[in-house]
Specification:
The protein starts with 10 loop residues before the first helix and ends in a 45-residue tail after the last strand. It contains 7 helices and 7 strands, in the order αβαααβααβββαββ. The model has no long low-confidence stretch (mean pLDDT about 90). By secondary structure, the chain is mainly alpha-helical. It has 2 domains: about 110 residues, Cysteine proteinases (Cathepsin B, Chain A, Alpha-Beta Complex), CATH 3.90.70.10; about 100 residues, no CATH class. The strands form 3 sheets. The protein has a 3-stranded antiparallel β-sheet. α4 runs antiparallel to α5. InterPro entries: Papain-like_cys_pep_sf (IPR038765), USP_CS (IPR018200).
Length: about 230
């Protein structure tokens, strides 16, 4: 355990601490979905560090302590987290979530995020979405859904998010404080994309509801949008 707090890893420090053998979060017993989510959320960004410290309304301080002292701080300090630490968290999630398979089965990352953010910590939803003028939907992450498109061989995240929003007729109601995106997930037999290039910045201008934008023809403020 590492009770002392460590900031997220940046630039050359991130490369030095995280690259190499025995680095990252050790996998065990179908933990890959949780390992990947935890690494993405905490290794190199502080956007969700409130999850580690804030006394939220429903906050379970035991789970919060395990997450902070046994997973996030060791990851940031040495670049390595033992599988036993993740199992400790999984055991607590099993008790709190009333689901016996959290310790041995592979889950969808969204299920894990909803459980820990909503039921255990009581965090307000991070995203507000609207589909086709319908009622707003609150959620904690966005999973990319789209049909196979022949012109996308090695897409980047920007392309996938834009096309997924377009195909689902979705808009962001407001600029999110944190935009967690789950990539398309497929089994061993079939993958839609062999690789996806990370977009280091994400332009959400065209994804925002009622956001003033420039006309692509004259440069003035646009009044109509063509999908």
């Amino acid at each position: 355990q590492t009770p002392e707090s460590f900031p997220p890893l940046r630039n050359e420090t991130a490369v030095r601490v995280l690259r190499g053998r025995m680095k990252g979060i050790q996998g065990h017993c179908n933990s890959c979905y949780m390992d990947a989510a935890l690494f993405s959320l905490f290794s190199c960004t502080s956007v969700l560090d409130s999850m580690l410290f804030m006394p939220f309304p429903l906050c379970d301080r035991n789970v919060q302590g395990i997450l902070r002292d046994e997973i996030v701080n060791p990851l940031r300090r040495t670049g390595f987290v033992r599988a036993s630490s993740v199992m400790h968290l999984r055991e607590q999630l099993t008790d709190k979530g009333q689901c016996s398979s959290f310790t041995n089965a592979e889950k969808d990352p969204e299920e894990f995020l909803n459980l820990i953010m909503q039921q255990i910590l009581g965090i307000e939803p991070l995203l507000k979405l609207q589909s086709g003028g319908q009622k707003e939907q609150d959620c904690y992450c966005y999973q990319i859904f789209m049909d196979k498109q022949e012109d996308l061989v090695v897409p980047d995240v920007q392309q996938l998010v834009e096309r997924s929003f377009l195909s689902s007729d979705l808009k962001l109601v407001e600029i999110p404080s944190c935009f967690i995106i789950q990539m398309p997930r497929f089994g061993k037999e079939y993958k839609m994309f062999s690789k996806i290039i990370p977009s280091l910045e994400l332009d959400i201008t065209d994804l925002l509801l009622d956001s003033p934008r420039e006309c692509c023809l004259c440069g003035d403020v646009a009044t109509l949008e063509c999908s």
